[in-house]
Design the sequence.
């Protein structure tokens, strides 16, 4: 197979490569690998970047969600209302703590939780709402917060695709009681391996999450409650600290690429989801087509790598078969029509034009 002319993304360190190398070397020379000075330093700077009082480094974004839920006392018998369109990990994290994910359908334009659909799913067992800022576009947080406060529900924000995004000018992650971030390599801020973080401005919740990520330990070898082992390691924390200063520039670059796509794709046969907030950080750039599978194949033949986020609504995954079925017709339709085109901070404009041209020439 010939390599694609246009890659979906490119994950080797670029302008920050020397800083990443130095960070790795520093950790190896220090000889301290788990929960040390690098994690402390990254937690402080990441909390600052998110305008949160506390950040807690954990093993993955999935664990970040699960640990927050456990920290809030959510578990067996409880329901968490979330979206059918996301990485399945959002719902799996609810199941990991024994809670039941309950799916409310999408706002068809924004592709995030529809607040009115959320309200219809509330039962006496509902404990939390878990919106996802999908593809980097903030969910409708004012409306979600209004519902949550009227029904006394916690809001936990899945910010795994939304580092530095804002909603109405306010940082995502600052609306709910806590937020979950992933540093999986493909995310807007990626480690060279797995990583995640919890942010919160609730000091008691921060303390509890810090304990829970480390086996429930209060002091060394003293376990106050059953926690998990999910720690961000020192090498990944050092790499993330080296990369964090570049994140704002990378985010601006993502937005510039999105602007070019929007201009070149207007008037073509594909539908481009609208930007509902200038705080959108474009983790991905999905387009919709009634003939998605043919579009996907045609782009591949033209040497353009595309991916489908996501082909299956979460409630239709076999892994969710034990859960109550959910009717989410809007999510069903989106999953049948959506495909993501290449977008990453360093993508050459010539490649963006190649992609847009190939999409424009596609006739269903
Ligand atoms: C990546 C992602 C997760 C899971 O993060 P991991 O670090 O891979 O566990 C959860 N939710 C969303 C929306 C994601 O994009």
Sequence:
């Amino acid at each position: 197979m010939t390599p694609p002319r246009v890659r979906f993304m490119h994950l080797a360190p670029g302008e920050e490569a020397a800083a990443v190398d130095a960070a790795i070397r520093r950790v190896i020379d220090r000889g301290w690998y788990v929960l040390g000075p690098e994690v402390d330093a990254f937690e402080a700077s990441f909390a600052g970047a998110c305008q949160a009082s506390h950040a807690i480094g954990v093993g993955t974004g999935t664990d970040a969600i699960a640990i927050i839920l456990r920290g809030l006392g959510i578990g067996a018998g409880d329901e968490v209302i979330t979206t059918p369109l996301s990485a399945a990990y959002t719902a799996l994290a609810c199941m990991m703590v024994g809670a039941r994910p309950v799916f409310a359908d999408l706002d068809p334009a924004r592709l995030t939780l529809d607040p009115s659909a959320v309200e219809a799913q509330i039962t006496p067992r509902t404990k939390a709402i878990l919106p996802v800022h999908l593809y980097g576009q903030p969910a409708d947080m004012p409306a979600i917060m209004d519902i949550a406060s009227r029904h006394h529900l916690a809001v936990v924000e899945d910010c795994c695709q939304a580092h530095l995004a804002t909603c109405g000018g306010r940082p995502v992650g600052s609306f709910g009681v806590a937020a979950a971030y992933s540093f999986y390599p493909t995310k807007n801020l990626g480690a060279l391996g797995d990583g995640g973080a919890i942010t919160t401005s609730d000091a008691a919740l921060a303390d509890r999450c810090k304990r829970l990520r480390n086996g429930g330990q209060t002091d060394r070898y003293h376990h106050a409650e059953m926690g998990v082992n999910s720690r961000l390691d020192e090498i990944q924390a050092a790499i993330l600290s080296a990369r964090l200063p570049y994140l704002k520039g990378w985010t601006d670059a993502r937005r510039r690429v999105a602007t070019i796509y929007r201009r070149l794709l207007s008037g073509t046969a594909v539908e481009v989801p609208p930007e509902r907030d200038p705080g959108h950080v474009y983790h991905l750039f999905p387009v919709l087509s009634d003939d998605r599978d043919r579009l996907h194949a045609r782009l591949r033949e033209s040497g353009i790598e595309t991916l489908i986020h996501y082909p299956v609504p979460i409630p239709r995954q076999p892994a969710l078969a034990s859960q109550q079925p959910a009717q989410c017709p809007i999510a069903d339709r989106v999953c049948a029509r959506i495909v993501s085109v290449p977008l990453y901070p360093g993508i050459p404009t010539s490649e963006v034009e190649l992609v847009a041209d190939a999409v424009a020439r596609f006739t269903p």
Remarks:
- The chain has twelve helices and 13 strands.
- The radius of gyration is 20 Å.
- Residues 11 and 237 are 17 Å apart (CA to CA).
